[in-house]
Design brief:
The structure is a homodimer.
Chain A: H1 5-15, H2 20-29, H3 31-35, H4 41-54, E1 57-62, E2 68-73, H5 75-86, E3 93-95, H6 97-108, H7 113-135, H8 137-140, E4 143-144, H9 146-175, E5 182-183, H10 188-208
Antiparallel strand pairs in A: 1-2
The structure holds a DNA duplex.
Amino acid sequence: MIMSLEHLILGFISMRPATGYEIKSEFEQQVGALAWGSLSYGNLYPKLKEMEQKGWLSSKEEEGGRNKKVYELTAEGWKELDVWLGNTPDYPVVKDELMLKLMVWGISRPHDHDSLIQHLRSREVKTRELFKIGKNFQDHFTWMDEYGVLALELGMVKLEAELEWIQSAIKKLEDSSLTPGVDKWNITPTQQQRRMSALESTEMEEKSNE
Amino acid sequence: MIMSLEHLILGFISMRPATGYEIKSEFEQQVGALAWGSLSYGNLYPKLKEMEQKGWLSSKEEEGGRNKKVYELTAEGWKELDVWLGNTPDYPVVKDELMLKLMVWGISRPHDHDSLIQHLRSREVKTRELFKIGKNFQDHFTWMDEYGVLALELGMVKLEAELEWIQSAIKKLEDSSLTPGVDKWNITPTQQQRRMSALESTEMEEKSNE
DNA sequence: AGTGCCATGTAAGACGTTACATGATTTG
DNA sequence: CAAATCATGTAACGTCTTACATGGCACT
């Protein structure tokens, strides 16, 4: 019970009874965008069924042509939600490909500032979009209590910090005024040599194949 | 090729040839802490084997009792790394349980500020720890180039923003001076009622079971 | 001699995504 | 009436974690 697609579902439904489809679409646009990521039906629907069998959820088929299952929390569901809320939250997991790329950028593409600036600009677009949604949260959320506002504020200060960083990073790349790194044992030349000798060997082959 | 345990490995080894054990332990303490998360041997070792078969890595068994396999990039590996660096990075995925809990805290535990403050303090401890490591990066990293410094800076401004937010959030909770939320259709009473009626029904049962 | 770290690996199972299949309703 | 959206679901596949098994080396 470390992970919590289940708890995420309990939390969502605690706001209001909902169908699987609603959970996915609304969650992704709202909370998920800042604090989770995407859900997939192939994961969600079987999980809802499982939770119903476990007794955390009950469902009501709403007829009227479109077959639609509205889930609601049972007493067990509310209790489980409360227990989860009481447990110390896991430290967040961040998977940031841009940071990984930056870490090794200079080995493979030193001085290729143009591609890097492009990466930063594409990051900026999405971050700015999320920031805007957050700013106008009153238009996007019909309900959010004072604790939710707290969560939103955390998201916002991080996005803001990122936007400022992007600006300064692009400027540094354009001006070639990057903060120098450390290289205690002067390994950079060795890295370059490892790379060159590995690549040269196949260049030879390619030439001889002509 | 959406995900990138493979590319993470290529990136790590581009810094220096390494064993599976070294990749896991060093990566987690350094880059992984800010930008990825943890690796597991059950995932890592088979993947290294697979990448060797694919021709991206070569390995050298270093004898001397302790059996140890040092991996190095092949020409194909360097090329693949370069291609990956050129692709626009995916937008980061954040999984933040604390934010999820905040979003629904008030429904199940309104006015329980003490538990929430505890959650925030436990978050603060780890964040402050990461912040300290970052600040003294010259002690923890023997090598980091100017692009790596850029990545580290992004990590740091986010951690800093989070620390400030934690302070202000704790203060607001202690003073009960939280920013009010929105409730366009006044659904809060309905939420409370749904919860109460679900819980009451089992309380009855429990009493009748006595 | 024992503890902790270095080091590799496998097997089972949990978790998650993708692609497919199906069909109703709403909107332009 | 076509396209987008609402709505549920399954099967295959891929990924990742957990738990286990094994053993050497270093330090106290």
